[in-house]
Amino acid sequence: MGEPRAFRCVSCKREYEPWEHDYFCPHCGPVRGTLEVLYDYGALSRKLSPLSFAQTRRHSLWRYEEVLPVGFEYAVDLRAGWTPLYARPELAAELGLSA
């Protein structure tokens, strides 16, 4: 999991300690006060590179775990991400297609 440096309101630009407020800025409210996650991008750039993402064998959003504000323990195994194709022979037959 990436370690956020701060959370910043997209409207008023106030910054908060990580996890001080979840989801939205208390001054701007839930409609306008979405909080963006800020990281130490300099430290991340020394640790990560486009090549490091390309070389991973994790073909899901978890290849970006170092820059996600949640950890792998929250992963859901639905074969989600990387847009897999699912075989649907019943649907193919119903549509008159070969599977």
Count of DSSP strands: 3
Structural class designation: alpha+beta
The rounded Rg comes to 20 Å
* Rough outline: flat
- In sequence order, what are the helices and strands, one letter per element? EEHEHHH
Helix content: 10-25%
Biggest pleated-sheet summary = 3 strands, antiparallel
* Contiguous runs where pLDDT drops below 50 for at least 5 residues: none
Give the overall pLDDT as a whole number.
84
- Helical run tally: 4
**How far do the termini sit from each other?**
40 Å
Brief overview:
By secondary structure, the chain is of the alpha+beta class. Helix content is 23%, strand content 10%. The termini are far apart.
Task: From the structure above, extract its key features.
99 residues, 3 strands, flat
Explained architecture:
- The chain has a domain at 6-72.
- It has four helices and three strands.
- It has 99 residues and is an alpha+beta fold.
- The model has no long low-confidence stretch (mean pLDDT 84).
- Strands 2-1-3 form a three-stranded antiparallel β-sheet, with no helix packed on it.
- The chain has helices spanning 29-32, 41-47, 50-55, 89-94, and strands at residues 6-9, 15-16, 35-38.
Q: What is the fold's blueprint, element by element?
A:
Elements lengths: L5 E4 L5 E2 L12 H4 L2 E4 L2 H7 L2 H6 L33 H6 L5
Antiparallel strand pairs: 1-2, 1-3
